[in-house]
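Researcher: We're reviewing a set of sequences before deciding which ones to prioritize for further study. For each one, I'd like a predicted 3D structure that I can look through quickly. This is non-specific serine/threonine protein kinase. If possible, include the structure in token form so it fits the rest of the review sheet.
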Amino acid sequence: MREQLSCHLRIPSAMQAARDRTSPAGHGGFSGFNSESQSDPGFSWTSTYTPRSRMVNRKARSSISFRERVAAILGSCANCFTPRPEVKKAHENPPIEAHDVSASPISRISSTSSTSNNIHNISRQRGDSSQTKSWQEQFSFQEICQATSNFSEQNKIGLGNFGTVYKAKLRDGSIIAVKRATKMHGGHLSEEFRSEIQSLSKVEHLNLVKFLGYVEYEDERLILVEYVNNGTLRQHLDGSKGEPLEFAQRLNIAIDIVHAIAYLHGYTDHPIIHRDIKSSNILLTEHLRAKVADFGFARLAPENPEATHVSTLVKGTAGYVDPEYLRTSQLTDRSDVYSFGVLLVELVTGRRPIERGRGRGRHQRLTTEWALRKCREGFAVVVMDPRMRRTSAVVAAVEKVMVLAAECTAPDRAARPAMRRCAELLWSVRRDLQQEQQRASAASAGARRHDGSTYAPPSVTSLRQDRFQNLR
Ligand SMILES: Nc1ncnc2c1ncn2[C@@H]1O[C@H](COP(=O)(O)OP(=O)(O)OP(=O)(O)O)[C@@H](O)[C@H]1O
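Model: Here's the predicted structure for non-specific serine/threonine protein kinase, in token form for your review sheet.
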């Protein structure tokens, strides 16, 4: 753990360089990395696919120390391109009743204080001279009690392994999310760890949930993060939130996710591995922008450039964990790529990685295995979430995404593409889809103009089975 912590501390020195590589554009991509300029990379059909999704004992996760959980959540970060934390204003959210709580005297400390105390502030200096005013968030346990109406049921928004998540309204009207550790996660936080928190809090990206601060008070441990107001991707795929997502929206979400993870992996010479990429860790904004949350298991990639992995206790979520990581306990950025591949299948099918309710045996229960088998047989259209509209353009795009998913989930991690490569591929899929849809709508308009008939898109049966022919 000590080694891990020391790795974390080196991040900020290279932060600016990493920032520079990140595009301010929403679904755009990396700067200096123009999606339009990418030639259609096509797909190399060389990977072999024999997914071996396995269960991970979730109980093992509860043994994770508070330190480890916090360390990681911290990557939940911020938008590099705005001067202020993008917290929701009161008028955008249901009001939260704040009432007084009796609390022990709380003293404030600055983020630079070296004294042990119960309040921790994160200050961020912005390099942009137009945004010279650095901002500093200060939080006390008492304030958070008030902001959450004393951790009322009404303000409870979720429950995870770390603890309970609450919505909180700060005095300035901002809305944030507060993760309150269950007491078993308690423990004293060292100065070293506080310093680490300060460091990791500087990892910022539009598609990462911002870390705002933390509070340590008696046996209470609170992590304060940006509130993202439109539920998790899993809730949307389950249909418990919002309208059914169309494929183009899912593709945009995948691209947001790939940007966030590629950013972490490309974080200077000390990449960060998320380790728990899953649909319930993807939060959506009202505009369906995705933000990757919960660095619950994050840790840094190998510090030594010659080292190819870090050895670690296997952690993650059943169905998403890289089988090679499970087998060897050796973690690389390609373990995140595996989880991302599973997530791609989830986006296309709408199903969870493990569908316990679907009959006996592995036939349909292991979604990735099932879906890729269907694709290899030429039935990509069958695996599509039935709530999505199907056109030939969409089916063609789905096929490409499924091929990428097959590559990402290749048993041999050396065969898996880097996240940056995944981004390039998804950009090209989106570009092709948009062009195809524009052509179709132009043809439709033209057809109506000339003869009054409506445009009939090509049959979806014209699947390009050859895409999958080399996938085993
Ligand atoms: N920043 C946030 N903004 C809005 N809602 C959030 C936020 N963070 C978490 N939530 C809600 O709280 C729930 C629990 O989140 P948490 O990160 O603690 O656990 P989880 O990711 O669902 O599971 P696990 O602990 O296994 O990672 C989420 O599913 C989500 O509904």
